[in-house]
C-alpha cells in the first residue's frame, strides 16, 4: 500500500563528520528524529534505510577524476596539493576517513527518496541527511563533498524524464545546484538566501538567470541581512507561487536549510520558527497543485543544532504527514534527555520567545530593499505571463 510519506534515515548517516568541532554536525538528525518520536509523530514503519549511491550515479553530476580523488582522500592517499585542486582538505571541507562512502550514502539517501516517490511507494519523502548544495562537478565546497540534490535531479531527468522544480531556502546560495542546471530548461532552480555581500559563497545575484536554453529557468532572491519573517515569507510565497505557475513542474524538490534563523551562528538573517512552519505548508500545496503530490525534501544548513534545527525540521515531517499543528511546550522528556548535553539552554516551546531579539532598526529599509529584489527576480516570469495572456 502506498504511504503518504517516508522518512529516509539510518545511523550510518552520522558518519559524515569532519571533526568534533566542525559546525556541520549530523547529530541534528538524531535530535530531530528523537523529537518526532517523543510526540508520537513517526513510527518504525515510516523509516526507509538509505542506500549508497553507485559510482555510475555519482558520475551523473561529478567528474570521475574528482570521485577518484575523494576515494584516495578517504584512505589517506591524496597529497595536499592534489586535495587543494579538488577543494578538499580545506578548513571548510577537511578530509576524514571514509569520506567517500559517507558522502555516497548521503547521495544514496536522496536517490532512495526519489525512487520511493517516483515508483509510487510514497507521495512524499524526507531525507534530512541530504541538501549538500555547494558541491560542484569536480570540486568540494562549503562542507559539501558530493551534491546529492544535483545527482538526484539528473537521476530524475534520466530515469524518469521529470521536469524538476528545485526550491532552496538555505541562508547560503544554492550555487552548486544552480551551476549544474544553468543551461537546462527542464530544471528550474529558485534560491532564497542572504545576500552574498557578506556571506559565503558570494553568488546568487538577482540577475543570474541561466544561459543558453536554460535562460529564464534560474531564479535568485538575495535578501538583506537581518531580514525578518514577514519579508522572508513574502518573498518566498510570492516567488514559489508565480514560478511554479510559470514552470509547471512534474516533481518538487525542496532544500530546507535551517540557517536563516536568528540564532544561527553562521548567518545574519532574523527569521523565527514561524518561517519554518510556513515553508513546508506552501511546498506541500504546490506539490499537490502541479505535481500530483510528488514532493521530496532534503535538509541542508543549520548550525544551531540544539535550539533551531530539531524544531524547524520536525515541521517538515508534520506537514508532510498532515499531523496536528504543534504549539506550546516541547515534550519534557526530550528537554530532559538533551539539556545536559547541550551547550546552550534549550528552547522549551515549539514557538520562539516573543522577545528573542531587539527590534531591528532598519526594518522598513530592509523590507523595501527585499521587495525591490523580488520584483527584479520575477520580472522575467511576469513578462512571460503577460505575453501568454495577450495571446489568449
From TrEMBL:
The similarity comment for this entry is: Belongs to the histone deacetylase family.
GO MF annotation terms: histone deacetylase activity
Functional pathway: Ketone degradation; acetoin degradation
- Identify the species of origin: Lederbergia galactosidilytica
Q: Which UniProt keywords apply?
A: Acetoin catabolism
The name under which this protein is listed is Acetoin utilization protein AcuC
| Single GO BP term | acetoin catabolic process
InterPro entries, from UniProt?
AcuC, HDACs, His_deacetylse_dom, His_deacetylse_dom_sf, Ureohydrolase_dom_sf
Task: Identify the SUPFAM superfamilies for this entry.
Answer: Arginase/deacetylase
Q: Which residues form a coiled coil?
A: none
Histone deacetylase domain ranges (all copies): 22-317
Amino acid at each position: 500500500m502506498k504511504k503518504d510519506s517516508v522518512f529516509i534515515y539510518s545511523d550510518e548517516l552520522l558518519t559524515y563528520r569532519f571533526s568534533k568541532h566542525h559546525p556541520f554536525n549530523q547529530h541534528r538528525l538524531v535530535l530531530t528524529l528523537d523529537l518526532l518520536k517523543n510526540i508520537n509523530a513517526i513510527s518504525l514503519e515510516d523509516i526507509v534505510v538509505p542506500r549508497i549511491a553507485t559510482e555510475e550515479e555519482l558520475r551523473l553530476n561529478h567528474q570521475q577524476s574528482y570521485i577518484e580523488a575523494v576515494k584516495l582522500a578517504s584512505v589517506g592517499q591524496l597529497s595536499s596539493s592534489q586535495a587543494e585542486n579538488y577543494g578538499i582538505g580545506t578548513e571548510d571541507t577537511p578530509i576524514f576517513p571514509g569520506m567517500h562512502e559517507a558522502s555516497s550514502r548521503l547521495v544514496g539517501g536522496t536517490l532512495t527518496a526519489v525512487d520511493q516517490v517516483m515508483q509510487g511507494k510514497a507521495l512524499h519523502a524526507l531525507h534530512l541527511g541530504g541538501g549538500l548544495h555547494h558541491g560542484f562537478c569536480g570540486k568540494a565546497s562549503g562542507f559539501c563533498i558530493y551534491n546529492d540534490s544535483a545527482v538526484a535531479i539528473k537521476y530524475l531527468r534520466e530515469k524518469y524524464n521529470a521536469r524538476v522544480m528545485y526550491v532552496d531556502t538555505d541562508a547560503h546560495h544554492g550555487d552548486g545546484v544552480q551551476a549544474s542546471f544553468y543551461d537546462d530548461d527542464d530544471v528550474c532552480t529558485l534560491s532564497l538566501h542572504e545576500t552574498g555581500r557578506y556571506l559565503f559563497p558570494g553568488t546568487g545575484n538577482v540577475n543570474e538567470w541561466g544561459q543558453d536554453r536554460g535562460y529564464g529557468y534560474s531564479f535568485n532572491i538575495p535578501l538583506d541581512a537581518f531580514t525578518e519573517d514577514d519579508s522572508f515569507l513574502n518573498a518566498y510565497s510570492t516567488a514559489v507561487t508565480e514560478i511554479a505557475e510559470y514552470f509547471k513542474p512534474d516533481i518538487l524538490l525542496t532544500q530546507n536549510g535551517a540557517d536563516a534563523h536568528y540564532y544561527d551562528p553562521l548567518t545574519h538573517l532574523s527569521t523565527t520558527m514561524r518561517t519554518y512552519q510556513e515553508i513546508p505548508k506552501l511546498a506541500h500545496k504546490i506539490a499537490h497543485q502541479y505535481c500530483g503530490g510528488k514532493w521530496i525534501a532534503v535538509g541542508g544548513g543549520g548550525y544551531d543544532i540544539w535550539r533551531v534545527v530539531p524544531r524547524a525540521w520536525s515541521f517538515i515531517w508534520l506537514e508532510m504527514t498532515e499531523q496536528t499543528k504543534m504549539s506550546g511546550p516541547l515534550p519534557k522528556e526530550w528537554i530532559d534527555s538533551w539539556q545536559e548535553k547541550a551547550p546552550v539552554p534549550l528552547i522549551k516551546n515549539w514557538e520562539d520567545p516573543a522577545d528573542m531579539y531587539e527590534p531591528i532598526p532598519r526594518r522598513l529599509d530592509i523590507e523595501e530593499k527585499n521587495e525591490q529584489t523580488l520584483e527584479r527576480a520575477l520580472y522575467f516570469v511576469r513578462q512571460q505571463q503577460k505575453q501568454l495572456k495577450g495571446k489568449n
